[in-house]
Amino acid sequence: MSASQRKLRALHLASFAGNIGDLANHAGARRMLAERLDFALEFTDLEIREFYWKQRSFDDAFVEYANGFDLLIIGGGNYFELWVDHSATGTSIDITPERLARLKVPTLFFALGVDTGQGYSAQSAERFNAFIATVLERGDMFACVRNDGSTRALREVLGEQGAAHIPTMPDGGFFADPAGARFADADSGRIGINIAGDMLERRFDRGLDSEGFLRELADACRALMDARPELRIDLMPHIWRDSALIAQMLPMMPDPYLRRRVAVGRLEPGETGLAGFLQSYRGFDLVLGMRFHANVCPIGMGVPSRGLLNYPQVERLYEELNMADRVIDVRDAGFSKILVDAVLSDLENLSAQRQRCIECVAALHQQAHATLAQVDKWLHLNLD
Fold first, then answer.
1. How far apart are CA 117 and CA 237, in angstroms?
2. Which residues pair with 130 in a beta bridge?
């Protein structure tokens, strides 16, 4: 922080508890904000799940509290999820137009996910349109969306003209590790696998149910270890529901493999667990990720990943990265052979895949810098 930088007290509304991927997102986003803005932000965290748990609401007290800061940041996160039909905005940010009008603090809607994967109603779309129109009209508000297909979703819901005014900001998880993207010194003989234990009815709503998926994945793990005798597999939870699904899968694998060649990653979804989480992912030769940040974080560190597709967000992420070929659809029976072949191919060509990640991250830095330049200009207009 430069001595000449103006300090801003920023209220940061986001998820800080229970999901280690969210913490990686914030770590990277705050690093980029510190590097690219002319302002030094002093953060006060406000947990968005307290609103989901009905411990808080977007009421007059929230507006009064937020107005006491120099800046309000909402995100990053998946808070423009349009299935929230009861909300005044059609999203998780359930603030009425009247209260939004009384919100006078400069407000940055930062790297938010516009999620249409769970569907949405005409009412939600109408309310979201009105909300975004207000945000775009107000000089003291700025919105950008993350690179998970959100721009495509904006075009779907707002139309081309509305979406054109909202830039893309890469998810902070790409920048979570200060070391950035670099080549591994040597192959580790380890791969990481993340499976998501939430939204199971949505994730497994066609050919395979969750049990069928786990059996195929267990078979694939055994086939990979048979093909590569040196290979070890780490199963990486991000939230407690992931651990529950991992526990369901483990008995499906033979005991000799489990005892000698399979590990379960540590789950500590708080600030003290972040460094170990990133270190684990940096140590893999390859990651198979079902969760968004199980793909974002390794790519950001130069570690090749493949998206395990059973929710649209992962597919759309890889499309935005021009890596659509890196997605494996795990919703139908028979995916295990495709997965095994893909992993073995990657392990034979790690250098090329690592180089592809490094080039991707370089482009993401350029995209982030362009959007943050707009944010910095907006801050000067509102605070100078």
1. 22
2. none
Residues 59 and 160 in one domain: yes
Same domain, 77 and 153: yes
Closest alpha carbon to 358 in 307, 295, 286, 300 = 300
Q: What is the pLDDT along the chain (384 residues), one digit of tens a residue?
A: 454 689 999 999 999 988 999 999 999 999 999 999 999 999 999 999 999 999 999 999 999 999 999 999 999 999 999 999 899 999 999 999 999 999 999 999 999 999 888 889 999 999 999 999 999 999 999 999 999 999 999 999 999 988 999 999 999 999 999 998 888 777 999 999 999 999 999 999 888 999 999 999 999 999 999 999 999 999 999 999 999 999 999 999 999 999 999 999 999 988 899 999 999 999 999 999 999 999 999 999 999 999 999 999 999 999 999 999 999 999 999 999 999 999 999 999 999 999 999 999 999 999 999 999 999 999 999 998
The amino acid at residue 338 is I
The CATH number that applies at residue 334 is 3.40.50.2000
Task: Give the pTM.
Answer: 0.95
CATH number, domain of 63, equals: 3.40.50
277 plus 372 within the same structural domain: no
What 3-state DSSP class applies to 45? strand
Contact residues for 175 (Cβ-Cβ < 8 A; gap 6+): 28, 29, 31, 32, 300, 365, 368
C-alpha span between 63 and 336 (Å, rounded):
51
Provide the 8-state DSSP code for 113. Answer: E
d(CA 283, CA 275): 12
Among residues 238, 239, 179, the alpha carbon closest in space to that of 31 is found at 179
Containing domain of residue 74, as a range?
A: 6-172+364-383
**Cβ proximity of 383 and 39 under 8 Å:** yes
Within a domain: 183? no
Helices (H), 53-182: 60-66, 97-102, 122-137, 150-158, 160-163
